[in-house]
Write the structure tokens for this entry.
Amino acid sequence: MAANWLAKGFDLTVWNRTRAKAQALEDKGARVAATPREAAEGADVVIAMVADDAASREIWLGYDGALSGARAGAVVVESSTLTPAWVRELAGHAQAAGCGFLDAPVGGSRQAAASGELTFFVGGDAATLEAARPVLAAVGRKIFHGYAAASESLS
């Protein structure tokens, strides 16, 4: 996904727990951040894709978490496959930080990711999706929007 964003002219800052894994992206023009917080600073859209709830919680929350660096008005997108309870909690944290939130797990193979043909299954409000659509469309062929936003269920 990241290589596609770079190839399509997006400015990109990346973070990986293992810095060496980000080296290939740095070689293609990405800036490598030391923390998730640093990666999120100044971004219009912040996207995470990790293995599970624990990893997601770790990269979004806390002093060095992405939400502590995200500016108000940014759209935060969680593309990991996570439990509904954590997604609802994360939506609340994003809302408290003044950020839009999209739950946007992907479908597709590594080949689909490499060729920019992923499918996004997006939960969140329509305006937030429209703000992030150019970023998602750059790596995804299809975007399915189910309006039942996690953040709305918190009200």
Notes: The beta strands are 13-14, 31-32, 45-48, 75-78, 100-103, 106-107, 118-123, 140-146.
